[in-house]
Amino acid sequence: MRRREFIAAALVLAFGLSTASRAGDLASIGKPEELGFSPARLVRITAWYQGRVDAGELPGAVVGIARNGELAFLQAIGFQDAAKKIPMKNDAIFWIGSMTKPVTSVAAMMLVDDGKLELDAPVAQYLPQLKDMQVRVEKTDAAGGKQTALEAPKRPMTVRDLLRHTSGLVYPPQFNDFPVNRLYYNARFSRDGTLADFVASLAPLPLAHQPGEVWEYSWGVDVLARVVEVASALRFDEFLQSRIFAPLRMTDTGFYVPQDKLARLVDAPEPREPQFDVTRPRKLLSGGGGLASTASDYLRFCQMLLNGGELDGARILKPETVRMMTTDSLPPDIRFVHLIGPKQGTRWGLGFAIRSNPDASLMPGSVGSYGWSGLWGTWFWVDPAANMAVVQMIQLPAGKIGPFFGALRNLSYGALRAGEQGFVPPLSAPRISDETLAGHAGRYYFGLSSSSRDRNGGATTFGGIGVDVEMAERGARVLLARDKGPAAQAGITKGDVITDIDGAPLEGTSIEQVISKLRGPPGSRLRLKISRAGHQSLIETTLTREPITIQGVELEVRVDGGKLIAEAVGRWPVLDFEKGKPVTLAPASASEFYVDGGDHTRIAFTRDAEGKVFRAVLNPGPWQLTGVRVDR
């Protein structure tokens, strides 16, 4: 099977479709103010995406936000076709890729609720073809050489393993290109084959890891789809339609788009792989990435989860089952082998990535938020603490989707009100001396997030060499060497494999460990060994780490005409402040000011023991944002 035929499956993230006729609280857009949003700041979402459309970076998008059980925002931006002749509409249909995985996981857990499926039963209990799969291991012989061998699993792979990517199954090369991944090219993952055919073709292949010991993104969810068929005695699409889509009124979600709806299908950014071609029926019903849907449909799926497994009277899952699925399910000593997945402060439940560490996680929202994304940029997350669900529907090549994730997390949480409503301006403005005003002027850094509900800390400035890497067979493969960075200046290029750092081999380490080794104090040095195609011997080089800064939320305060002026100068707007739109601050006291208009953002300045202003707090209270002065 060709390499490109797996790319979709590996990054695929499940998404939803919008319905022509919807019922319940998600039927029409409610009043943003009553749902805790600032209408003016919600408009920034539309403006940001429209800017990307105007710049030619994005054909179009549909973005939906639900909060407190109601639809707060649903907006179509740009065009659904590459020729820019068909305006995007809210009911546009998208291939959602790996956003199919959470749907498949819910299907399996419904059968657990029904008593037809056991989470900790061996997969072979339902799929006997897989009972004799062995584990591929690498051993060192007496001469120090490495040999591969097969050994029996320490325990059988279970249904739970399929749900959490700890089965030992893997994908063919895309994220990881180890010899065992290449063996998976031999599996029959073809549009003309069934799930049963696919599972049978896996039987002769080895597992890459002992079940339960390693997290690696895999074909396990496609195997899980076949388990659903066997346990339910229904074809996978029939089960999804009768047990999930119909009860939830997800009328535009399925494995292919019918002829009468094809005009609503958003153009593909690159050729569709045959097994993910949603324009026509196919035998392969991929539980890992086969669905198409709309923003509205997928929001209904998210709202069902937020409601503890029920929507509009339709009970899909038990509340305790939803809690189980959205709680960390991984052993504390799990090892990760991946390019994507639960890293940087994120863990994994049964079908979802879950935010666990707010200072490091790439998952938006509160601790306990969960979600997943798809190959071409579809994305969703559910935040139980904020009672909110967000869906992004775009179709871009995988290498171009990154900026849209950061934008939506900041703009959506940044639109939530933060205690502005209760502020009462003073009856008369106090007189503030010019010296006091001048003491407040400066630049204040608020971190990586524009909302305290999406605390996103971690190091914003660190020493590095300016490379993005992924794990390869013998080390870390360079994906990008940034212009003028230490690595690029040393001649390191895309495709090079870093095999050693400071004399320590990277083989067998995790991506997090590699990143930790590459980073260090600015000015410190590190020694690399590099394997490069066409070179028989390793290349050795020594580099000096340079400061690398991640741009975040910054506010510049200055004095103009005897008044304080504030303007956002960082990457994101924050509350009433935007880049290029300076706002005059009215005084409430010598240390507190407010915006006399907009959402009435308040700003309080704090002085240190020497009497110098060193901090600014926006909207003091439970949802305050604290900024540190960085120009001192």
Give an overview of the whole structure:
The chain is of the alpha+beta class. The chain has four domains: 231 residues, DD-peptidase/beta-lactamase superfamily (Beta-lactamase, 3-Layer(aba) Sandwich); 136 residues, DD-peptidase/beta-lactamase superfamily (Beta-lactamase, 3-Layer(aba) Sandwich), CATH 3.40.710; 102 residues, Beta Barrel (Lipocalin), CATH 2.40.128; 89 residues, PDZ domain (Pdz3 Domain, Roll). The protein is 21% helix and 23% strand.
Sum up the structure in keywords.
single chain; 632 residues; alpha+beta; Beta-lactamase; Lipocalin; 4 domains; 8-stranded antiparallel β-barrel; 7-stranded antiparallel beta sheet; 14 helices; 21% helix; disordered N terminus
Question: Can you give me a brief rundown of this structure?
Answer:
By secondary structure, this protein is α+β, with helices and mostly antiparallel strands.
SSE layout:
Elements (H helix, E strand, L loop, with lengths): L3 H8 L27 H16 L5 E8 L2 E9 L15 E2 L4 H15 L20 E6 L5 E6 L7 H6 L14 H5 L11 H8 L11 E2 L4 H13 L3 H10 L46 E2 L1 H12 L3 E2 L2 E2 L3 H7 L9 E2 L9 E3 L4 E3 L14 E4 L5 E5 L4 E6 L8 H13 L19 H7 L1 E4 L15 E4 L2 E5 L4 E6 L4 H4 L7 E5 L2 E2 L5 H8 L6 E7 L7 E6 L1 E4 L4 E7 L2 E6 L14 E5 L4 E4 L6 E6 L5 E6 L6 E5 L3
Parallel strand pairs: 6-10
Antiparallel strand pairs: 1-2, 1-15, 3-7, 4-5, 8-9, 11-12, 12-13, 13-14, 14-15, 16-25, 16-31, 17-24, 18-19, 19-20, 20-21, 20-22, 22-23, 25-26, 26-27, 27-28, 28-29, 29-30, 30-31
